[in-house]
Amino acid sequence: MDSLHFSEQHSADAQLKPHIIVFAGAKSGVGKTSVVANVAAAMAMRCKRVCVLDVDTGLSNINTLLGLRPAHRLEQVLCGEKTIAEVLLKTGEDVGVVSAASLIGGTPVSAAQMTKLTEALTELEAQFDYFLIDTAATHTETVLRFIELAQSTFLVVSGDPAALTDAFALLKTLNARQYSGSLRVVVNQAVDYPAATDTYRRFAAVAEKCLQLKVEYGGFVIRDENLPKAVALQMSVVDLAANSPASRCLFALADNIIKHIGSETAGTGLLDYWQALLTPAPFKHTVADIADSEPTAAVNSWRAADKTELSVSELSRRLLSAMKHQLLDQPELERFTGEFVEAYCEQFGRFPNTFKPLFYRWLETENYAEPRLIELVTTLEALQAMRYQRPMFSLEENAARLVAQLQGQREQHKDLVEQLCAAYRQSFHEELFDAEQVLLARMQAEEFTEQRFEELLEKLRDSFQARFKRPYQSRHELALASAVEALNVMGVDQQNLQDEITMLMHGFQLLGSRREKLLTALNALQNSGLPLAASAVRDN
């Protein structure tokens, strides 16, 4: 795994303000939000204070990925209904999450609301060292402003040619706006390190050749089966499997952000950054800028409209005509469409009514890759939970769906049960099932034969000996062994006593023999008529 080739910046001054780091993705489905969530968790595990600002006005699913259920919105802070502490959510790794998409492209903020927003951002700014901003996967003016005003931006791409094309279009737009910030490319969903570096080199070569723009290598995240498991469990993969291939990549990315970006003299600061975002940007006629190299009749029509003040219907007619009969720059047209819809929502406070049938047509005709479908469904479920304060499906319904999905798939079923048990153990610090009760209940089943009991008993004995380094013995067996040992000791003691008695008897016999001999000698002396001195008698 390669380290990030960031330009080293040293400083002797202490950091006073937090760093603002933008994560951008030119196309949905490249895994940008997943990278943001896991990098934030990895940085928090390195004891850094990290907050994620979700400004994705499209598929906003950072809360779902981290298992959070937001109950309040940031606009409630502006209205004085809630405090920033009530809006701020935190994960198990202590990562802060604030949904700020409602403040982007909406109704202009009043002076009173700006005061409350300033107070809230000042309070939030004091709590964190890094703010990671998760933007929408579009080329709208708002997203471009987020990138332009940030000190550092990570552009998340994949090896998909369509994703690389959209990422190049974003670079082209930034280059046309004379972007001078620091932009690094992160290759996500890479097969391996060589494939990731090959994707980066091809992308960087095209950017340098066509735009004379150098982009730095930011790192890569390898494809890993633990990532979809983490999404299903609504937790970060670095927490689920810290030593997995993807987690090692994400920790490397987090470490290099801390080491290099964190070593800058000072961050921008959240308050200053957001105030710059809310300040109206100088008007840029981006269509006319690109028209210098790609003149079209549509551009001429728009220029004429600036002078003659054509009606909206006439401008719409000319634009549609240009789209049907002229070869237009598709990425530029997509960006214009996004800006147009954003302006419409700002003007009328809602999306056009025609969006509903268009949305259904998009779902039917779009050639979705599986990760994008999962991301879309997850986002819809999160919106349901956030709006109605309850999940889309009950626990019983989810369980029934899982059982139906895993019908006949034994290994997948076992794997899911193991994941659920692991999640329960992590949350409540205890085992889900009592192994003793499960075993006893299983033994009561009719199919549990005496032979299986004997086999189980033998396995338990083997396990006992492996664990405690001695053969297993029941309490009765231990008592019997103890009694046998006591009897053996008693037998030894009895034999010793018998030996001592034998020796005593032998001593008594010797004493009796000596007594008889002494009496015989005395009798002999008396019969001989010799006088015996008392001392002689005592000596004998």
Description:
With 540 residues, the chain is of the alpha/beta class. The protein folds into 3 domains: 19-278, 3-Layer(aba) Sandwich (Rossmann fold); 289-354, no CATH class; 475-526. It is built from 24 helices and 8 strands. α1 (32-45) packs across α11 and α14 runs antiparallel to α15 (312-325). The chain is elongated.
Main features:
single chain, alpha/beta, Rossmann fold, 3 domains, 24 helices, 8 strands, 59% helix, 8% strand, disordered N terminus
Q: Strand content of the residues, in percent?
A: 5-15%
Our Rg estimate from Cα atoms comes to 42 Å
Order of the strands making up the biggest sheet: 3-4-2-5-1-6-7-8
pLDDT < 50 runs, ≥5 residues: 1-15, 285-308
Structural class estimated from helices and strands? alpha/beta
The CATH class assignment of the largest domain is Alpha Beta
Proportion of residues in helical segments: 55-70%
Mean pLDDT rating: 80
Total strands? 8
Ends distance: 107 Å
Q: What's the CATH topology label of the largest domain?
A: Rossmann fold
In a nutshell, what does this entry contain?
The chain has 540 residues and is of the alpha/beta class. It has an 8-stranded mixed β-sheet, with helices on both faces. Strand 3 and strand 4 form a beta hairpin.
